[in-house]
Amino acid sequence: MSELDDLRTAIEELAARVRVLEDELALGQIVARYGPAVDSGSSEAAARLWTDDGVFEVPPYAVWTGHDEIAGMVEGEGHQELIHNGAAHVLTAPRVVVDGDDARGWNYALNIRWDAEQERFWIARVSANSWHWHRGAEGWQIVERVNRNLDGSDEPRAVFRGSAEAP
Amino acid sequence: MSELDDLRTAIEELAARVRVLEDELALGQIVARYGPAVDSGSSEAAARLWTDDGVFEVPPYAVWTGHDEIAGMVEGEGHQELIHNGAAHVLTAPRVVVDGDDARGWNYALNIRWDAEQERFWIARVSANSWHWHRGAEGWQIVERVNRNLDGSDEPRAVFRGSAEAP
Amino acid sequence: MSELDDLRTAIEELAARVRVLEDELALGQIVARYGPAVDSGSSEAAARLWTDDGVFEVPPYAVWTGHDEIAGMVEGEGHQELIHNGAAHVLTAPRVVVDGDDARGWNYALNIRWDAEQERFWIARVSANSWHWHRGAEGWQIVERVNRNLDGSDEPRAVFRGSAEAP
């Protein structure tokens, strides 16, 4: 029986390691889904990446809270004009720290826009992003995403210090 | 014996989860190999990412089908001039959906070019990409990659709606 | 006993596959940590990504060797001016080849800078990067990172041919 117990323990330990890998990949996939959702105007697909009362904070421009506000941002005139002129929300693969059913992450988001006259793109915004995800009944979702333009001010550096100081 | 069977089942279930993770990482690696292959002019390495009759569709410019055409694109005058003037094909980590021996994905590709006089780069193209991969005797390869410039037209949004509507 | 041995072997084989996945994700995480560290001016967090005598080579500009020099680069006047004017070091997810306790990788790094007058960003540098990592007592760290601007010269293409020729 002791040998069986050893095997059982080995399988459980391995399963725990596999779960961490699944979590890390799942969180990267949430980030990879954001751009295609908003750039195709798929407001529901974008909103569902957040928890019911999840927050998307883009200071000093706006704070959107919950599915309706986030979907409303995608459906709104500003965003619709953006994507019909040609726009890309390009996010990089995040650094991720998983802690049970919560996780934090950091990455870059580029807001790139098409200039039809010049036939080239220009970069309107490159932001430092921090993410807080939670695993609930719907799986991993965004609790809070903060997006700060890397314009030389201290706030985006403070966002990224979170990554530097995390384990 | 029943306990042994339980352990065997637990190992098989774990192996299936590990295989999904291996697949997701392998597909991300195909995407990560494309840029370095074409930007170094390594035509065979680029072509081998596709199946024998795989398709690389860049409407309205071109459709390349099969290894010879894809390698020919890399060896061709247009691409050679591009990389000798300074160019980068920067692809983002894809959203991936694996379904057995087939998989689909979506990501961005930036076509960036060096301007030697201004000593800076400019962005010629930011595209919505969809990928269909298949696992065969050679492992995962690209069956079809579609690349649509995000210039405000509906086609690239339709490409990305595939991501929004996928499970 | 033979059946127990079979299960033990199956678990060991699975554990080896899980370890490869852990390695690949860990190496991607090192890359994902670099940008937030340097763009927040977190010199120690950046330096610790390298081994004690690790090398960061950015020809023809500079070669930094070891923690003190790498941290010194981040704390130096040039880098500090860069991030206080607004800058982003945006790295893509790497292609990775793990070989025991050593690994190699290739990716892109974009050096993007804020232009406060034009209220847009411009791209100063897009480089071909090669990485050599080693796993030691501190886990995976960078032994050597080479960064070559994709300005049309042969050297960055040679860097990326390493990716094309790797297994």
Detailed description of the structure:
The structure is a homotrimer of 167-residue chains. Chain A is of the alpha+beta class and 167 residues long. Helix content of chain A is 44%, strand content 39%. Chain A is built from five helices and seven strands. Chain A has helices at 2-39, 43-47, 66-75, 77-85, 154-165; strands at 50-58, 62-65, 87-91, 95-99, 102-115, 120-136, 139-149. In chain A, strands 1, 2, 3, 4, 5, 6 and 7 form a seven-stranded mixed sheet that branches. In chain A, strand 4 and strand 5 (102-115) form a beta hairpin. The model of chain A has no long low-confidence stretch (mean pLDDT 97). Chains in contact: A-B, A-C, B-C. Chain A binds chain B through residues 4, 7-8, 11, 14-15, 18, 21-22, 25, 28-29, 32-33, 35-37, 39-42, 44-46, 83-88, 90-93, 112, 114, 116, 119-123, and chain B through 3-4, 7, 10-11, 14, 17-18, 21, 24-25, 92-96, 106-108, 110, 122-126, 128, 149-153, 156-161, 163-165.
Terminal-residue CA separation of chain A: 39 Å
Uncertain ranges of chain A: none
Total beta strand runs of chain A? 7
Query: C-alpha Rg of chain A, in Å?
Result: 19 Å
Q: What pattern of helices and strands is seen along the backbone of chain A?
A: HHEEHHEEEEEH
- What is the subunit arrangement here? homotrimer
Mean pLDDT metric of chain A: 97
Global morphology of chain A? elongated
- Percent helix of chain A, as a range, is 40-55%
Strand fraction band of chain A? Answer: 35-45%
Structural class of chain A: alpha+beta
The main pleated sheet of chain A reads as: 7 strands, mixed
Task: Determine the number of helices of chain A (DSSP H or I, runs of at least 4 residues).
Answer: 5
- Find the biggest chain interface: A-B, 42 and 40 residues
